[in-house]
Amino acid sequence: MVAAARSHPERGIALITVMAMLLMCIAVVLASARTGLLHEMLTGNESDQLRARAAAEALVKDAESDIRGLSSDGGPCGAANGNEPATGYVGCRHRGVGMQPSAPYFPRDVEDLDEVAALVSADAALPCRNGICVPASLALLDRLEDKLDAMTAVAATYGQYTRAAAPSGSAGNPVLATNPARAWYWVEAFRYDIGRDAVAKGNVASPDPARPFVYRVTAIALGLKPGTKAVVKSYFVPYPSGQLQ
After folding, report:
1. Vertex 172, ends 225 and 163: CA angle to 5°?
2. What range defines the domain where residue 78 resides?
3. Domains contained in the chain, number
4. Per-residue pLDDT tens for 10-32?
């Protein structure tokens, strides 16, 4: 009789022990699931940042081709026959019928720069138009990547002038797709005597005296996730001293 009386408390203690162990297992499973979800989110955010960075770097290369007047296949932009540019083209930019300036272009010589400066300032509060800027100083547009709404209206998109193929869907980098646009670039053109300090700091070769221009490219790409943004700035001298083409 004594042994039978003790069996009920022992069964109660065993039940409590099992329930406690079950709760501990549930807590471990929930913690593991939460940790896995957190790792997945971090990995996704990191991948999105890398994707946006790659898109911004591709934009810089596209802008450099635009500056040099080269299309996506490496040939001159606007070429009608062989390597001869079509009427109205200066590099990758079309100036209108009869070579009448109707849109900005990258200057070929010192005389062009004043005309380009007037074109980019004609109808905008910012000294920029179609992705080309001619500011009075290096500091003028220094932080305009923080004012994206203002700059997207005067910036260029990937392949807009070089005809580089912008990917869509899952092909290539979807950040570079242009509908809707998630990536833009603009190029500031300076005479070397204005921008030489920045060029020296960036370890960039000095330009040829016949084309004494230094270009600062700013590329911005927004990721596919909210809050992801990559900004890449680069100085570019298309015709270094002694290598004029």
Report:
1. 110
2. 43-236
3. 1
4. 656 776 777 777 778 888 777 77
